[in-house]
Prior knowledge:
The protein is an all-alpha fold. It has one domain. Helix 3 packs parallel to helix 7 and helix 7 packs parallel to helix 9. It is globular, with a radius of gyration of 21 Å. The two termini are about 35 Å apart.
Amino acid sequence: MAQKVDFLKDEVYKIFFGYLIPSIVASITVSMYILFDTIFIGRGVGSEGLAALNIAIPIYNVLFAVGLLLGIGGATAVSISIGRKKLNKVDEIFTNSIIVAIICSITFTILGSIFVKDICYFLGANENNIVLVKDYLSIVIMFSFSFLMVNTLSAFIRNDKAPKLVMYSTAIGAITNIIFDGLFVLVFHWGMRGAAIATVGSSLLSLFTLIYFHFIRGNSSLKLIRIKVKYKVLKRVVRNGTPSFIIEISSGIVIFAFNTVLNRIVGTIGVSAYSIIANISLICVAIFSGITQASQPIISINYGAKELVRVNKVLKMGVITATIFGAVFFMIGMLFPEYIVLLFNRDSAELISITVTGIKLYFIGFLFMGINIILGAYFQAIEFSTLSTVISMSRGIGFTLLGLIILPNILSLNGVWLTVPFAEILTLVTATMFFIKLKIALSIGNKHRSISR
């Protein structure tokens, strides 16, 4: 399923849009795992189930974060090495990344299974919902290796000119998840366990699809070689992947922080409202992430080959595409918030009212979010990881937590929903300053002395 693409010679627009749709579809379908768990749990278990799921969700952020740390970090290093004609480095980078991913997978599965109850309480479970949270997390943690490895392999396979395979594998998993969720939650009434089994089974199917069709039956140019883990290689991979790691980890931290503040202001119903908003937000962020995934291989290889004109074209297309999508998300939030809420819950008028208001305020952030994500990914793709890390920290943790400290004290519940627009606007100012500084540095050929990598 690998495409016959020449990243250095083919028309940039053709490559970008050829990668765009598969990357967006793959990214969306990954986020839909949790979305459909939310929909079916909301219908089959109720608002208590929604709150329990929202408490459990940060565990996915940890697994995805480590997968992206090694996948995006390694794939970026591989692509730049190809652009620089250092082909002897490719399998070395790939092997080091996979070995560490396997070690992390085993560690998460063993330790998570032993301490699952402690993890539940740490994430915010209490005596009222500990059973629901534990029912869900115990199964997810037992198969945590699957979620981590899917994210790691997807990044490498996409850079190995097979974005459609990644799309097909995630689409198969998402469709399976919908079927299993409906069957296990609504028909068999297995509750939280049913939703977890559906998600795990779908992830395992996606992992099998990637391995079988790319590495066993496919034309993979990536090979595992007999080699010990090298600190220098791993350091490069981790440095490149740190921004992606921070984005995912910060999502879990932000969910935890939002849950804490909402519990204090309005109680469990506020957490349930945020569960709905956060899951819809996952879809929107997934589309932005799909745009970055389409851009990254093209940018990295061309940057490695010093084809900066082609790099700038891809960046421009990414920013324009993200801006258009951001405007569309904003308009949907302004015009159709009630329809969004009714997908998840039809029984509680109070929940519907709180969530509708939240959507209208929260969705303002999408006008700026896409541009921030694209600029952060651009810095990451050219191995200016320090700049990308600062942007990821700013929008993911720094400005968001600052907003949660300040705004709710002034605007109460509305201040919680306005935290995301607040953080995205401040991040856009920061990212724009970095971009201008970097562009000047590159234009005078002084980038290594002017900006720390």
